[in-house]
Amino acid sequence: MVSFSRAAAITGVILLAACSDSSNDTNTETAQDGAVQPVETPEPKDPLSMTEAYTLENQQYLETNLAKDGVEVTESGLQYEVLSKGDGESPSADGFVTVHYRGKFIDGREFDSSHARGEPATFPVGGLIPGFTEALLLMQEGDTFQVTIPSELAYGVNGAGGGVIPGNSTLVFELELIEALTQQEADELQQRRIEEAQAQAEAFKQEQLAYLEQNAKNDGVTTTESGLQYRVIEESEGAKPTGLSKVTVHYSGKLTNGEEFDSSYKRGEPASFPLNGVIKGWTEGLQLMNEGSKYEFFIPFDLGYGERGSGSGSIPPYATLIFTVELISVDSRPAE
C-alpha cells in the first residue's frame, strides 16, 4: 500500500514545513494549452514589506490580539481562541489529521484555503510548521480554533512559497479538526481516495467516448482517421496552413457540459501561434481549413490533454474539447 505520507492526496502544501520554493514556476498558462497566453504578473512586493516596519506591524498585531477576550497564549507564543468545542479524539504528534482551514495575513488577505479547494486537507501532524502542529495537539475532533502564529513558529525571516508569504509574517488560521488518524488509518483513507478517483475518471472517460460516438452521427459532422471530428460552419478559398505554419485565429473552447474554459473573443483579440506547438487535434484540424473559414472541432482526449488533463485544472483528464475556430490568417513561412 502506498504510504499516505508520500501520497498525492496530502494537500495544504503551503502549510508543510518542507514546502518547496515556487520561484521556478512559469508565469504562463495556456489557451488550448498549446497557444501560450500571458498571465498578469503581480507587482513586485515593496521591499519595505521585508523591513523593520513590516516586522513591527506583525509584532504589534500579536500584542493587540492577545488583549482580546478569549485569546490564550502558550509558552511558545502561539495564540489561539476556541470558536467551537468538540468532544472527539485528539491527534498524536506522529499521526495524521483531516482538517478544514483558512490561512490569512494580519490584514485579512487569504493565502491558502481548503474551503476554496472544495475539500478538507489531510496531512501528517509532524510535517507542518511548528505553530500549526502545536495548535493541532491542543485540539479534539470537532474543535474549531482561530490560531495566530508568530513568524518564528511559521516561516521566520525567509518566508515561503517564492514570496507568497513574506518573511516575518504573522499568520492567522481558522482551523477545524475533522478527524485524527493513525498511520494505518491514513493509508487506508488514501487508498480509498485513489480508488474513488480512478472510478470517477473511468466513468467520465466512458461518458466522453459515448458523447463522441453520438456526435459522429449528427448531420454535417465528419470524423477523420485519427478520431478528430469537425463541422464546417463557413468555408473559404484562402490559403491552407501546413503543420509548420504560424496561424492567427479567433476561437472559443468548451467542455461537453457547455462550460467554456478559454476564448480569444472574450480577451478581445485573436491569438497567433505555430501549429507544431499546440495539441494534436488543433494541429490536424487547422490544416483542414482555409484562411477565412470557420469550423467547429470535437477533439477526443487522446488528441487533446490525454489522461492527465491540463496543468491549470480547467480541463479534466479524458475530456473531449469542443472548439469553434475562425482561421484569420496563415503565415506561409515555417514557424521558428
Structure notes:
- It is built from six helices and 16 strands.
- It is α+β, with helices and mostly antiparallel strands.
- The chain has two domains: 4-181, Chitinase A, domain 3 (Roll); 200-331, Chitinase A, domain 3 (Roll).
- Strands 3, 4, 5, 6, 7, 8 and 9 form a seven-stranded antiparallel sheet that branches. Strands 10, 11, 12, 13, 14, 15 and 16 form a seven-stranded antiparallel sheet that branches.
- Residues 1-14 and 17-42 have low confidence and may be disordered.
Q: Which descriptors apply to this entry?
A:
2 domains; seven-stranded antiparallel β-sheet; elongated
Total DSSP E strands: 16
Task: Provide the residue-averaged pLDDT.
Answer: 86
Question: Count of DSSP helices?
Answer: 6
| CATH fold type of the largest domain | Chitinase A, domain 3
Give the helices and strands as they follow along the chain: EEHEEEEHEHEEHEEEEHEHEE
Please identify the oligomeric state.
single chain
Number of domains: 2
- Tell me roughly what share of residues is in helical segments: 10-25%
Q: Under the CATH scheme, which architecture of the largest domain would be assigned?
A: Roll
CATH hierarchy, class of the largest domain: Alpha Beta
Distance between the termini: 48 Å
Shape, please? elongated
Main β sheet profile: 7 strands, antiparallel
Short description:
By secondary structure, this protein is of the alpha+beta class.
Ordered list of secondary-structure elements with their pairings:
Layout: E1 28-30, E2 36-38, H1 52-66, E3 71-73, E4 79-84, E5 96-104, E6 110-113, H2 114-117, E7 121-124, H3 130-137, E8 144-149, E9 171-181, H4 183-215, E10 221-223, E11 229-234, E12 246-254, E13 260-263, H5 264-267, E14 271-274, H6 280-286, E15 294-299, E16 321-331
Antiparallel strand pairs: 1-2, 3-4, 4-8, 5-6, 5-7, 5-9, 8-9, 10-11, 11-15, 12-13, 12-14, 12-16, 15-16
